[in-house]
Amino acid sequence: MRALYERCCGLDVHKKTVVACAITPEARETRTFGTMTADLLALADWLIGKAVTHVAMESTGVFWQPIYNLLEGTGLELLVVNAQHIKAVPGRKTDVRDAEWIAELLQHGLLKASFVPDRVSASCASSSATAPRSSASARERCGASRRRSRAPTSSSPRSPPTSRALLSSTLRTPARGTLSGALDAQK
């Protein structure tokens, strides 16, 4: 099978370790890194030193997120892949074999990337899920980013506000801080 990516890396991510397998025209090399910031920076330096262009990692739990966030600014093409799509091959039981398998699948273009939201959307989702009532600044910041992303273009006319938009704008006013006051104000 023809290789689609000449220089790629597969990461098998765990709570305390990251096993990386880099495939380059020169060689195939596997290394294990820790998950502390210094270790992840060493991983990034190693990938850049190998001139790797594409990196794929499993999306197991939340362990992939710090690695993704750190590697995001390096210019590498990152793929987060559903672990169930990768583990379909029997006999792959070690971390090293898993990292090699991910790298091989990536090299041949056989991996489908999972959706990874941008940082603003992700922070909005996590802040609204964890403390929706107590984080007014996060709600305002997230609401502003949503409003910016949904702004109409100059060619499309602005639609009139819906009852939901009116309700949410009334809920934000200090004079009408309760739901019953907001409903009364709409009548």
Short description:
The chain has 187 residues and is of the alpha/beta class. The chain is 44% helix and 16% strand.
Give a structural overview.
With 187 residues, the chain is α/β, with parallel strands linked by helices. The protein has a domain of 100 residues: 2-Layer Sandwich (Nucleotidyltransferase, domain 5). Helices cover 44% and strands 16% of the residues. It has eight helices and five strands, in the order βββαβαβαααααα. A five-stranded mixed β-sheet has the order 3-2-1-4-5. Strand 4, helix 2 and strand 5 form a beta-alpha-beta unit. Helix 5 runs antiparallel to helix 6 and helix 7 crosses helix 8. The C terminus is likely disordered.
List the helices and strands and how they pair.
Elements: E1 8-13, E2 17-23, E3 28-34, H1 37-49, E4 54-58, H2 64-71, E5 77-81, H3 83-86, H4 95-107, H5 119-130, H6 136-149, H7 163-172, H8 179-186
Parallel strand pairs: 1-4, 4-5
Antiparallel strand pairs: 1-2, 2-3
Helix pairs in contact: 5-6, 7-8
